[in-house]
Amino acid sequence: MISDKLSFSTNLFWDADLSELDMEQHASYVVERVPDYGDWDDRKLICQYYGMEKIKSIALGIRSMERKSLSFIATVTNTPENQFRCYTLLQSKNLH
């Protein structure tokens, strides 16, 4: 369950039952959602909770992520964007 100490923005998990959201079990969901839809305080919360190495480890395998979120995570973890799974998938999208 989300700890009482973690107070994410109210709009962040609009499609989830927060009483059922476990920060460890659903870490991939949280790490994907926060950079895409959260604000700066939300990002700081996950950095404090998970630490940069765990965020990097999780983010490397995420299939879909906004470009700005990918850039943010790549920058704060000092990891080239092309090492992330979502980078390869972003490159293969046909943009109009």
SSE layout and pairing:
Elements: H1 27-37, H2 40-50, H3 52-60, H4 67-77, H5 85-92
Helix pairs in contact: 2-3, 3-4
Explain what you see.
The chain has 96 residues and is mainly alpha-helical. It has one domain. Helices cover 52% and strands 0% of the residues. Helix 2 crosses helix 3 and helix 3 packs across helix 4.
| Quaternary organisation | single chain
The low-confidence runs, each spanning 5 or more residues with pLDDT under 50, are none
Q: In this structure, how is the largest beta sheet organized?
A: none
Tally of separate domains: 1
Distance between the termini: 41 Å
Whole-number average pLDDT? 86
Q: What class, by secondary structure content?
A: mainly alpha
From the spread of the alpha carbons, the general shape counts as globular
Q: Count of helical segments?
A: 5
